[in-house]
């Protein structure tokens, strides 16, 4: 066990069981990093209440068992001696400090571990991740960019810990707007339509179609008729729909490629895919009495959802005009993910504004038995990205921002950040691209996914603070140490010995990598891994300022150890950034 927090949890649990009985062996000892010691355990507080004893006394007893100190008649915790010191403080806190030797041995161990301390899932789960999901009939905006970036990081981390990941890009590729979109395609000609859509001008295309739909009765009539042939999946209409969708997807793919997003065409499972299932979904739910007709519409009334004046809130799966909607599709989708994809866990990475829809969906699906108890479903709520004016992020002219243009601007600004470096043009472009992309992605990942934040190029491109470029820079700097020393990091295998406090702090930090990765996967929280990487890079900076590595007067044993610490830090940062989807340029 290399992770200190897990190690201490296990040891304290053993001590609890010996001291107070086996029923305490899985009590959470509440081990947290502390400013007074390496860790603090707070379990004695709640335990004191439960045992009706003074928490300080309880804490002392745990400390004694933990360290094997004899108190009269006490049984010792079995196993090797405790590699650290334990002190009782305040009303009953346990302050735990680990021995340097333990930290040194564990860090040498994870340096030799190809997974750097990240455990592989014992029994792999099938994790379905619904993310990105732009709408073809509208623009792909910065909000979709964030769901794409966060979802992709989650997919990467689940794959890394050995789960079976099924990515699902639930494109908005169906519904009544497609009548006018297809008619507009006929009006302007296939070639022109394709060119415009591939260039990412879906919004302009949509607006042109919409204007005609509103002002031209003949066009309006055609568009409505087209909706009917589309619903019936009539071949010629489907051919035109495919032309429209292929061009649109080709633009989405440009954005994905540009950002290193792992979604492929195989992962597309848009709304259209569920169209053939919708009638049956409604029929079945109605027959089983799960859905009832209310004001002409077919609705599920999941328990616990009420609107004004305690009226039960409907989850409408068929409108009174017979049309299906977003809710119908999502009911079909959840059933498919459980029954056909065999999901153990379904993660929906979608805007926070859809919170009510999502919780009603989950409740309705549970009622229908389509989301059994053992399947975990969660809405990873994505907060809005705001402009400097505090409103939804738009361009100066007020129009929403075209993503490729935004990414171009990120590249340009990143190029300015590295302008004083001496690189040839090709290298410069490559580095600028990695830095620009990394800055934009990391900004989305480093704040908690459900909080809003202000899109600010200057802040995300800063070389200090919790930014992508800072972490890229820290990583590139470690690579340059090895380059300068002419040493292959793979050969820096230690052993690690700890002398300087900055070495100890760095090594202790590095031991937490596995837990940080596990926590990100468990809680769907990329910002936790981001914070860990930032703390690691900061600990490295302090180490690097205090502990020379390549200088001639450094002892051989110390140099070997410091190189090993550099190598482990490098691997943790590289792996961690890769899990977040943030690229690292070789030099910076
Ligand atoms: N296309 C939707 C939007 O842009 C997101 C779809 C999310 N996935 C889902 N299963 N509802 O808001």
Please provide a written account of the structure:
This protein is α/β, with parallel strands linked by helices and 588 residues long. It has a four-stranded antiparallel sheet. It has a four-stranded parallel sheet with strand order 6-5-10-11. It is 53% helix and 10% strand. α1 crosses α3. It is globular, with a radius of gyration of 28 Å. The mean pLDDT is 94. The chain contains 21 helices and 13 strands. Bound molecules: arginine (ARG). Arginine is lined by residues 130, 133, 135, 170, 172, 330, 333, 348, 350.
β-strand amount: 5-15%
Strand order across the biggest sheet? 1-2-4-3
pLDDT < 50 runs, ≥5 residues: none
The gross shape turns out to be globular
Give the class-level CATH name of the domain at 468-580.
Mainly Alpha
Q: Determine the structural class based on helices, strands and strand pairing.
A: alpha/beta
CATH superfamily of the domain at 468-580: Isoleucyl-tRNA Synthetase, Domain 1
> Which CATH architecture of the domain at 468-580?
Orthogonal Bundle
Total count of helical runs of at least 4 residues: 21
- Approximately how much helix is present in the residues? 40-55%
Average of per-residue pLDDT values? 94
Largest sheet: 4 strands, antiparallel
Total DSSP E strands = 13
SSE layout and pairings?
Elements: H1 4-20, E1 31-33, E2 39-41, H2 43-51, H3 55-67, E3 84-89, E4 93-98, H4 100-112, E5 126-130, H5 142-160, E6 164-168, H6 177-188, H7 190-198, H8 202-215, H9 217-231, H10 235-259, H11 278-287, E7 291-294, E8 297-300, E9 315-318, H12 326-339, E10 345-351, H13 355-368, E11 376-382, E12 385-386, H14 403-417, H15 425-446, E13 453-454, H16 457-460, H17 468-485, H18 501-510, H19 513-523, H20 526-546, H21 556-580
Parallel strand pairs: 5-6, 5-10, 10-11, 12-13
Antiparallel strand pairs: 1-2, 2-4, 3-4, 7-8, 8-9
Arginine is lined by residues 130, 133, 135, 170, 172, 330, 333, 348, 350.
Family: Belongs to the class-I aminoacyl-tRNA synthetase family.
Main location: cytoplasm
Subcellular location: Cytoplasm
């Amino acid at each position: 066990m290399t992770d200190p927090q897990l190690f201490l949890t296990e040891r304290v649990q053993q001590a609890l069981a010996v001291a107070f009985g086996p029923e305490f062996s899985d009590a959470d000892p509440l081990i947290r990093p502390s400013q007074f010691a390496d860790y603090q355990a707070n379990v004695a507080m709640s335990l004191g209440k439960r045992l009706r004893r003074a928490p300080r006394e309880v804490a002392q007893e745990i400390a004694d068992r933990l360290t094997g100190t004899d108190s009269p008649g006490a049984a010792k915790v079995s196993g090797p001696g405790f590699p650290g010191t334990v002190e009782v403080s305040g009303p009953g806190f346990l302050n735990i400090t680990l021995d340097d030797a333990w930290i040194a041995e564990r860090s040498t161990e994870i340096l030799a571990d190809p997974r750097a301390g990240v455990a592989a899932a014992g029994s792999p789960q099938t994790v379905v991740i619904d993310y990105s999901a732009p709408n073809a009939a509208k623009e792909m905006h910065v909000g979709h960019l964030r769901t794409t970036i966060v979802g992709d990081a989650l997919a990467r981390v689940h794959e890394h810990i050995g789960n079976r990941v099924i990515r699902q890009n639930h494109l908005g590729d169906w519904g009544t707007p497609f009548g006018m979109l297809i008619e507009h395609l006929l009006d302007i000609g296939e070639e022109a339509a394709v060119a415009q859509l591939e260039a990412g001008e879906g919004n302009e295309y949509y607006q042109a179609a919409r204007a005609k739909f509103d002002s031209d009765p003949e066009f309006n009539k055609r568009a409505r008729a087209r909706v009917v042939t589309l619903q019936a999946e009539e071949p010629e209409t489907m051919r035109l729909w495919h032309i429209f969708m292929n061009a649109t997807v080709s633009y989405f793919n440009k954005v994905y490629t540009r950002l290193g997003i792992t979604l492929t065409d195989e992962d597309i499972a848009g709304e259209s895919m569920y169209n053939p299932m919708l009638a049956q979904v409604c029929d079945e739910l109605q027959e089983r009495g799960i859905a009832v007709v209310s004001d002409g519409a077919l609705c599920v009334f999941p328990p616990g959802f009420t609107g004004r004046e305690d009226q039960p809130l409907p989850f409408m799966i068929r409108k009174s005009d017979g049309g299906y909607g977003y809710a119908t599709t999502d009911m079909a989708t959840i059933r498919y993910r459980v029954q056909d994809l065999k999901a153990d866990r379904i993660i929906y990475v979608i805007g926070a504004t859809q919170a009510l829809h999502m919780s009603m969906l989950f409740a309705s699906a549970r009622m229908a038995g389509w989301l059994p108890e053992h399947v975990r479903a969660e809405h990873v709520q994505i907060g809005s990205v705001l402009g400097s004016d505090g409103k939804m992020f738009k361009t100066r002219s007020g129009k929403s921002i075209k993503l490729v243009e935004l990414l171009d601007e990120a590249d340009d600004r990143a190029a300015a950040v590295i302008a004083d470096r001496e690189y040839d043009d090709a290298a410069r472009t490559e580095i600028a691209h990695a830095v620009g992309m990394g800055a934009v992605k990391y900004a989305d990942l480093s704040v908690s996914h459900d909080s809003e934040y202000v899109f600010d190029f200057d802040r995300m491109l800063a070389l200090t603070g919790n930014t992508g470029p800072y972490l890229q820079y820290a990583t590139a700097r470690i690579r340059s140490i090895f380059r300068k020393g002419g040493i292959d990091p793979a050969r820096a295998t230690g052993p690690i010995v700890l002398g300087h406090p900055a070495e100890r702090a760095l090594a202790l930090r590095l031991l937490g990598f596995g837990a940080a990765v596990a926590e990100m996967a468990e809680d769907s929280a990329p910002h936790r891994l981001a914070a860990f990487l930032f703390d690691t890079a900061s600990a490295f900076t302090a180490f690097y300022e205090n502990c020379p590595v390549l200088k001639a007067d450094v002892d051989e044993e110390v140099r070997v150890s410091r190189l090993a610490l550099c190598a482990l830090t490098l691997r943790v940062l590289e792996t961690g950034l890769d899990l977040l989807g943030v690229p690292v340029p070789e030099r910076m």
